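To assess whether the prediction recovers the assembly geometry, we first specified each molecular entity separately, as shown.
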Amino acid sequence: MRLRARTRLHWEALVRWPGFWAAGLLVLLLGTAVAAIRFGAVPLTSSELWAALAHADHPLHAVIVEVRLPRVVAASCVGAGLALSGLLLQTVVRNPLADPGLLGINSGAGLAALCALVVWPDVAGLLPLFSFLGALGAVLVILLAAWGPRRRLSPLKLILSGVAIQSVLFAGIALVTFIYADRAPAFVAFTVGSLNGVGWHHIRWLAPGVAVGFVLAYAARRSFDLLLLDDATATSVGLNVQGTRLLACAGAALLASVSVSAAGLVGFVGLVVPNALRLATGPHHRTLIPLCVIGGAALANVADLAARTAAAPLELPVGALMALIGGPYFLFILWKQLP
Amino acid sequence: MSAALSIGGLHLRHPGTDRDVVRDLRMEVTPGEIVCLVGPNGSGKSTTLAALARELRPRRGAVRLDGQDVWSISRRQFARRVARLPQEPIAPEGLTVEQLVRAGRHAHQGLWRGWASEDASAVESALIAMDLLDVRKRTVETLSGGERRRAWLAMVLSQETEVLLLDEPTTGLDIRHEWEVLDLLRRIREERGVTLVLVLHQLDRAARLADRIAVFHRGRLYLHASPSECLNHETLRDVFGVDASLSGDSVSPQLTIRAPADPTRRL
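The predicted structure of the complete assembly is given in tokenized form:
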């Protein structure tokens, strides 16, 4: 009896330990990454994989290096970016129900990117820039709407203003997709979110964007911790509350926009990952920020692998799959975590 | 380690509204003094505290800390000198007592200066002062009401400021814990010499604790004097609307309320 009690105690201490989660998620990430590279139209065994990687003249070398590897790297960056973005937003609104998709930031990035595609169909290089501007614009409109005539930000006002802006922006996306129905396939893939066709040219700005967001967030981790207290207390201990909120919003916009311009509108990664990790290890940004990077990357790879294998050879959109997981998780938060 | 507060001609208004909640407030708080702000609900006590805490910018007038306008002091510098505990502070789920108390050291740390030994000793002595050593690893939401109050008080104590501003620090506590908290405040003043400004609703507790009492009435300072001068029959009738009197000495004052003074009169 006593032994069992002691084992349970050790187990509880272990699952509260961030290192346990970091190690577990890292194993999951690496495992899925290897599986994702092996799986495809031509499946590979492990030994074939190493052979194909090592020899540039191997018939499958190009497929692995130019198609499968960048897809895994892109999925990791997108997952990490969305999870970090969601973490920052959840901190800003002091509520677990925040996500760049739900608050309209993804839609802002998406609408701007779609408009750019309509006006300059050939200039793919402008896409990340436009989606960043779109995300930033969406964040500014959300902040202004929440600021309102009373000139004061509050978490609840931010959430509601985000939901309102999201519906308007998504209507814009639907309209553009409808009017330019002739280009529908590409646009539809974008709207549901898909990693089909990502290459190294996406990663050229995706990876630095996520890296900058990560460094920014990690540098401000202590301020973000204080943001979780009420405004009056946070002000009293010397925090610039509104300034820190703005910084977190800008970081969330950057992270979401680079992710969206590579993978389209993938939702719920930013909701599920930070929320689950906070439940597991507590509210500290020092551990949550790195954990969200690993966890987001792992979840995105798992979802993408599932999207590719579930109905093979047909490939499902990863965004739709995430929404299938995310919607029920949203209800789980609603039932279990809100009073 | 104490500082004087001087409030001159203060007009306060919540942003986005068009009515002054506090009008033409003038008041001096001397170093090391305990001042209790009392008054009916909505008389402007908490708003005044927010202005003293450099959170609400006055529409007119100024709050001076040792002669210096509080808005001319940097945010961080101010947080090292003045701490404020709001009425209902919020801590995120999963935060332990020790981590909460460490938050009080934020203003003492810089971009380059991390956690130092004086931060650790400030946290340690705040935990000891509030008798929280046994629960330091517990999360805040699992504490009882009294322990939670003490945890928050420990957080503002670890800030090691010259002035403490407390908004109803004993609300929601049972009489034993209320007694303990008020006792602790007196001890903090004796040991650290801080200046204390607090909002209290229980007049007899205010009379026992305070050096001077500031009575607020409809956004104005009605009286600012010693407890016995303040809480006389006329003030209790005109400000609080009760037929009551304060008796007993300064160690155990007693408030006897007989009836509402004039039930038809609006406060």
